Structure formats: structure tokens, C-alpha cells
């Protein structure tokens, strides 16, 4: 069982899957037992209802949905943030993992 679960949301779940792989590699290298997965923003409600999520990250391309996600997560204590464009573009899994960790701190 993973100690933390991080959900990345994007438009279709495709581009983010490479970033998920890079984040998983970074977590493993740091000895962290994290479950990290990507899903389309349209499936977020279902995932939030059926899974224990510790952090929600939005891809820059769905950053405009930030207010919607803030409403969804209101009262849950689940931190949420928009992945910085540069880290997303460079597929910098280590930096995005650090960003998620900072949100969960």
C-alpha cells in the first residue's frame, strides 16, 4: 500500500502519462512509496470518490479548471496545485514530485 497517492489531471490523460513515469522514477530513487497516476479531468470526480488521494495536480493545459477543482476539494483537506509550465514542458519528474511534496507538507 502506497504511503501517498498523487493524481495528475490533464485534458485526456495522455501527455501526462510520461510525466507520471518520470515522477515514479524520482519517487523510487528517493525511497518513497507513492502511487502516482494520471487521468482526464473529466474522471476526477469518480477517482476522488473512490480512492484516497493525498494530492491533486493539474496539468498547465487544464490550469483554467483550478477554481472548479478548488470547489470539488473544499473541506477535504486535499492540497491541489497547477504544475509549473516549465517543469511540465521539460517532463521534470523530480521537480514536479518536489512540488507535490511541498503541497502535502
Helix content: 40-55%
**Major beta-sheet overview:** 4 strands, parallel
Give the overall form. globular
How far apart the termini lie comes to 20 Å
Structural class category: alpha/beta
Poorly predicted tracts of residues = none
Give the strand order, joined by hyphens, for the main sheet.
Answer: 2-1-3-4
Number of helices: 5
Please write the string of helix (H) and strand (E) elements: EHEHEHEHH
Mean of all residue-level pLDDT scores:
95
Oligomeric state: single chain
Rg measurement, Å: 12 Å
List the topology elements:
Blueprint: E1 4-10, H1 15-29, E2 34-40, H2 44-50, E3 55-58, H3 66-73, E4 80-82, H4 85-89, H5 93-104
Helix pairs in contact: 1-5
Organism: Lactobacillus nasalidis
Domain PTS EIIB type-3: 3-105
Keywords: Kinase, Phosphoprotein, Phosphotransferase system, Sugar transport, Transferase, Transport
Outline of the structure:
The protein has 105 residues and is of the alpha/beta class.
What does this structure look like?
With 105 residues, the chain is α/β, with parallel strands linked by helices. 45% of the residues lie in helices and 20% in strands. It has 5 helices and 4 strands, in the order βαβαβαβαα. It has helices spanning 15-29, 44-50, 66-73, 85-89, 93-104; strands at residues 4-10, 34-40, 55-58, 80-82. β1 (4-10), α1 (15-29) and β2 (34-40) form a beta-alpha-beta unit. α1 (15-29) crosses α5. The longest helix is centred in the first third of the chain and has 15 residues, at 15-29.
